[in-house]
């Protein structure tokens, strides 16, 4: 868990730097925060504003890849245009001479929801006390607010999962990673996935690599297998806001039951479960976990196989979740 830096008078008084260099050379004190298959996230200091920021760029081996550059630039622009309390503010977008495409955003302190759920599953009493079911539902509502706003702007997230829900140290909830978002008016780049690599489950919430592997390469579906909707898996049906409703339902189920509803030993089996298998409500799956009355009905409506049987808009789901708390 990270903390916010203290504001010092010495950091507010200096004159603006002279002859400010272009691109990433403007920033100092780089420190790696995370890296993925193609991207790198670093924190650094901006001497102009006097604040620590986060910068997302491509890894050296992918920075010249045209598709990766296009994807990161789209993520930057989508994120920058979704100006909402539950999305991260973007300060700048650029093309650095050495690092390639990058974008600068607010550096938020805290941790993602998956880390919180892992500690709860392991019986960490401090985390259990800090995040009872009602608080966890509030966190999901925050993510849903970001989705309701993005849907009103014609953007479908397509990769809603606990790792992408950031919980700040001061109560903020931020929905991150719009890298595989679908924007209305753009051709759908979805095609069906076959074959697989998900590892067999060993224990609740302990196979992070399997559950977070995002399939976004050529010939693969955007999203993370365990959280995909049936229409994402199928690849032959339109993707709309009800796809995000399904993924939110998976997050709700996992958050309450501390079990993933559709996990299989392989991606093929997982996809078969998503498309065909009916799962028990979370309260039946984990009867030892405390859950608000009525939450099963909400979760199971989100997880309907047919989009027409789910919540049709995110605001309706938000309203029902708020009635629980």
UniProtKB/TrEMBL annotation:
A GO MF label: ATP binding
Stored InterPro entries: Kinase-like_dom_sf, Prot_kinase_dom
Ranges of Polar residues composition bias in the record: 201-215
Annotated stretches, region: Disordered: 199-231
Domain of life: Bacteria
Keyword set, alphabetical order: ATP-binding, Kinase, Nucleotide-binding, Transferase
EC numbers on record: 2.7.11.1
Domain Protein kinase, first and last residues per copy: 27-325
Coiled-coil region list: none
Name of the molecule in the record: Serine/threonine-protein kinase PknD
Organism: Rubripirellula lacrimiformis
């Amino acid at each position: 868990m990270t903390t916010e830096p203290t504001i010092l008078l010495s950091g507010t008084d200096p004159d603006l730097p002279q002859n400010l260099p272009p691109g990433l050379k403007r920033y100092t004190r780089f420190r790696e925060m995370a890296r993925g298959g193609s991207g790198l996230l670093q924190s650094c200091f901006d001497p102009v504003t006097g604040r620590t920021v986060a910068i997302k760029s491509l890894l050296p081996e992918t920075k010249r890849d045209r598709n990766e550059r296009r994807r990161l630039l789209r993520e930057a622009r989508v994120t920058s245009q979704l100006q909402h309390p539950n999305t991260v503010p973007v300060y700048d977008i650029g093309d650095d001479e050495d690092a390639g495409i990058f974008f600068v955003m607010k550096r938020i302190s805290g941790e993602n929801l998956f880390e919180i759920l892992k500690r709860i599953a392991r019986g960490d009493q401090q985390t259990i006390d800090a995040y009872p079911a009602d608080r966890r539902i509030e966190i999901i509502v925050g993510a849903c607010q970001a989705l309701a706003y993005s849907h009103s702007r014609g953007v479908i997230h397509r990769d809603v999962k606990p790792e992408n829900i950031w919980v700040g140290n001061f109560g903020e909830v931020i929905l991150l990673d719009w890298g595989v978002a679908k924007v209305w008016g753009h051709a759908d780049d979805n095609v069906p996935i076959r074959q697989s690599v998900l590892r067999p489950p060993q224990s609740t919430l302990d196979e992070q690599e399997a559950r977070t592997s995002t399939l976004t390469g050529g010939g693969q579906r955007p999203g993370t297998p365990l959280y995909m909707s049936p229409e994402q898996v199928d690849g032959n049906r339109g993707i709309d806001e009800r796809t995000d409703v399904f993924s939110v339902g998976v997050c709700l189920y996992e958050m309450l039951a501390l079990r993933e509803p559709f996990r299989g030993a392989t991606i093929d089996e997982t996809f078969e479960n998503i498309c065909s298998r009916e799962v028990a409500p979370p309260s039946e799956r984990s009867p030892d976990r405390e859950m608000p009355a009525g939450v099963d009905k909400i979760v199971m409506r989100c997880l309907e196989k047919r989009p027409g049987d789910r919540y049709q808009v995110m605001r309706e789901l938000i309203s029902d979740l708020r009635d629980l708390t």
